[in-house]
Design goal:
Elements lengths: L12 H11 L5 H12 L4 H9 L1
Helix pairs in contact: 2-3
């Protein structure tokens, strides 16, 4: 995923969603949306989103 993140960290959000929601079923779409929203209210949004998904 890191190789595809050229242009900013937000590029990998759909890739994370595909893995976390569709491939591995770790969370629902709503839970992933909450993780992204939680990341937006803190500094380092993509890092926080990855932490919540993980």
């Amino acid at each position: 995923m890191g190789a595809l993140a050229y242009g900013g960290g937000f590029v990998i959000i759909p890739l994370m969603q595909a893995d976390a929601v569709d491939n591995y079923h770790w969370m629902t779409d709503g839970q992933f949306l909450n993780a992204v929203a939680l990341g937006q209210i803190t500094p380092g949004p993509v890092v926080q989103t990855v932490a919540v998904v993980g």
